Amino acid sequence: MDVALERVRKSYGGVTVLHETSLDLPSGRVHGVVGENGAGKSTLARILCGAVRPDSGRVTVDGEPVRIAAPRDALRHGIALVTQESAIVPALSVLDNVFLGTRGRGSGRRSRFAALAARTGFELPPGARAGELPLARRQQVEILRALAHGARLIALDEPTALLPKADAAALLGLVRDLAAEGTAIVLVSHRLDEVLATCDTVTVLRDGRRVSSGPAAGLTPDGLLREMVGRPVETLYPDPPPVPDGAPVVLAARDVSRGRAVRGVSLDVRAGEIVGLAGLAGSGRTETLRLLFGADRMDGGEVTVAGRRPRARGPAGTTALGMAFVPESRAEQGLVLVRPTAENLGLAALPARRLVRRSTELRSAAATAAEVGIRGAGLDRPAWTLSGGNQQKAVFGKWLVRRPRVLLADEPTRGADVAAKARIHRLITGLAAEGVAVLAASSEVEEVLGLAHRVLVMRDGRIAGEFPRGAAGPEDVLALAGLR
Amino acid sequence: MRTAAVRDHGVVVALAALVVALSLSTDTFLTTGNLVNLLDQTVVVGLLACGMTLCVVCGAFDLAVGAVLAVSAVVAVLVTRSAGVPAGYAAGVATGALMGTVSGLVVVLTRVHSFIATLALSIVYRGLAVVITGGAIVYPRAAQLDAFQMIGWPTALGGVTAATLVLAGAAAACWVLLAGTAFGRRVHAVGGNAEAARLSGVRTGPVRVAVFATSGACAGTAGLVMAARGGSAQPNLGNLLELSAIAAVVLGGTSILGGEGAIWRSLIGVLILGLISNGFNLLGWNPTYKQVIEGVLILCAVTLDQFLRHRKT
Which Pfam families match (chain A) (predicted)? Predict the structure, then answer.
């Protein structure tokens, strides 16, 4: 069975995450898909298995176009996806999970389960509740389920991210075995070494486009990295205004910790300085920013703004000291989407007790909107009417009303198109020029390097190292972050 | 956009249509006596709906208002007996506000969903009313009865009752609070996206407690009105009225998902429910069907709300 994606395209809220992309997935071959975060890898895998419907383009099986509107359609055609966030039913047994959605019950299942377990080498207790298994073992349940459905194409999204080395090697061995039996495999992974060692062909995605596609033989991790990152950083980002000599430290953190996510982070950000926070997914970037802002409670450590500690707990205390926070997800954490844009822009600067006049609110919002360059249907319309990039500008805008002293920004340009991205970058450098201390985290290494005076690299909840501006390329940062 | 317009203006059109239909089909509808009576009958649910609107916009439900109403009425009567009518009135409203504050604190501190938390509290409050009264009906002293019942009297304003004016005043206050103050903005933000509000520096806990306190004060006032009308109070007063209040709020087009709504909407919702009742009376229809129609209307309103919300995300 040969599956192919033909010119599939997907966009969310005006932002195209996958441009017309084609991919051939012949049986018996392992196909690697690599790219930076947001390059479109997961979208591609999810289109394949019916979890996401493309805006245009089609999926063909043996040359015939097939209609895949939901995961069960994909399964009927023998296509299964094994994801990072495991899709199991925690309350059901391992056995029930493996045969979920298949017909037939009773004694036949146990012997089929034993056969599948023997074939894969997985040692899973069939009677145990799936929810009690550790994450890495739940993945095995999903792989067994794919096989139980007779899947002829299995897409694995970051399958080894959670596994210790030996288990990862065993899994990749299984992948090769399945391919040898004629199954087509799509392997989405950050780990370039294992992609090169396991795959027959490798496709590189960048900004939702296929940059290259070809046999894995002859490729090197460094070469792949260069293709993933793309054009040189310098051409995109102008130098930020220099930090004045003797600029005081505004944001200071000492031994900030929370569980296993953040383990004793200390850092200083001076007035007018932009400090970048880089690291792989799960390295503790987001968690560190949330702790500094008081969004989560610290286990230990201290955060001060210009030497003062927050007097109240949580964001109410840190915002009173002049901290501003652009969270990771604007829809869930940044904006009240059902409220008008004008109200969102005023939210962080509401007076304690006073009448609010609509006209004053709109005038103030209009000034902010002009400053950050929001374009949309109207400030009195709900914020959900704005495009992704303009929503992101609104999240910045709400903090500008009360001039902040510290700006913490997590994924400041997520989901923004090129123009909105440039605008947000100008905004950040502009704030720094006014003396705001900026700490910005991004999964795009390129962005962190381009924006910041100084880059801190996180790994396993700690700061693994630091690069001054211009001293490191993306490869150095990713290496320190533990990519290879 | 067209479906959003249905919600924005549909309730107004529906209200107008009902008024026209009843005016044409009966001789009795457009009489002063009937209209005064109609308004007076909306007062209790109207007061509860004002407080409930704040809660629902803030993303919470207050199912305890019926029980708060009963306790407040009982306390108002008992305080009237020992300290006079003005003190009794004040005690009634204050009791409502206090119990509302307690509900708010319980919801915020336990983090149990307000629907369940206030359902449990309503049972507690009812029990409290029984404990206070010993399960009996309580009356003001005979000499106080006239003064105690003054809230039900007609006023110089075309004969509408004082209770109707109380509702008008309470509604105006809640309207300004919700639509025209910084507090109202916070209520909307907490109901629309509590996490975004928190991360914008809004203290969500105090906002939630405040809307429950307001709802309690409204319920206390409603308790006064009921006690004054009946000249007595008893523990099962206002049973299940919280559902009528929620029905009115939803019918008016306030989103049960939080973040969107207005006091005027709930007033229209109350009036529509009142008109349906009134119409059944005037036309001599079997009141059994009234419930069916009300239920279907509420279902339609909620379905429309969910449909509109779904398209946004």
Answer: ABC_tran
